[in-house]
Amino acid sequence: MLSRLTRPQAVAACGLPVVGLIATAVFAPLPFSLTQPGMTADVLGENKGAPVITISGAPTRDTSGQLRMTTIEATNPDAHVSLGEVIDSWFRTDQAVMPRDAVYPSGQNVKEIERHNTEEMRKSQDAATRAALNHLDLGDQDVEVTLRLADVGGPSAGLLFTLGIIDKLNGDGRGGDLTGGRTIAGTGTITADGTVGPVGGVALKTQAAKRDGATVFLVPKAECSDAKAELPKGLRLIPVTTLKSAVNALTALESGKGSVPSC
């Protein structure tokens, strides 16, 4: 039968399976998640009617300015992402494709993921409290810190929680605000010894920060290049590696004295 086909007909006949494969690839589910800028929250303020940071056992101070932790939003772990959606995201600055395993722990269902993220948030809050109190030499005193942030999981708010505690307890150490009255956003994990770690998704988080009024963004130094890739106009990046470097940078920015690092 095929021998009777003219060359154009033969090409067309052979092309049908290829078209089918392309169509299947475009609509077949892929192991990716689509992500976009998420909500931000001022850790110096309230979240859903309750203070994010509550401190007892030590005097606190009124603060001005904001310290906004940032998030990204991702498609549900059970959602199917097609090749067409992946290609579309390549041409957009407000959306990115990430491996699903980089967003959600591999092999876990939705409830397990929620429990994992909640536990990571709890550990982050504990580390943030220890890091802040150690920084202020209050680690062995009876100071109790409670952190509340609804509907957010994972460890990436650690640095901002720590700075919020320090601002409420000590400010810039000279009677002023650590923020200098600015709206400052950022991201980064924190350990009890004050080490700041990378988190991922920073290019989307800078967009969320700018959208919600931030003019300064604290970024783990290792992620400077990612943050610069789609940096919104008017948002200043400050790279940090430790809690001390973050505090020193904010103090220099507020006072106008000393150098402020940049990416």
Could you characterize what this model shows?
There is one protein chain. The protein is α/β, with parallel strands linked by helices. The protein has a single domain, classed as Ribosomal Protein S5, domain 2 (2-Layer Sandwich). It contains eight helices and twelve strands. A hairpin with a 2-residue loop joins strand 2 and strand 3. Helix 4 packs parallel to helix 5. The longest helix is centred in the middle third of the chain and has 26 residues. The chain is globular, with a radius of gyration of 23 Å. The N terminus is likely disordered.
In short:
Helices cover 38% and strands 21% of the residues.
Write the topology of this structure.
Layout: H1 7-27, E1 32-42, E2 46-47, E3 50-51, E4 53-56, E5 66-74, H2 83-90, E6 96-99, H3 100-103, H4 110-135, E7 144-147, H5 158-169, E8 183-186, E9 189-190, E10 196-197, H6 202-211, E11 216-220, H7 224-229, E12 236-240, H8 243-255
Parallel strand pairs: 5-8, 8-11, 11-12
Antiparallel strand pairs: 1-5, 1-6, 2-3, 4-7, 9-10
Helix pairs in contact: 4-5
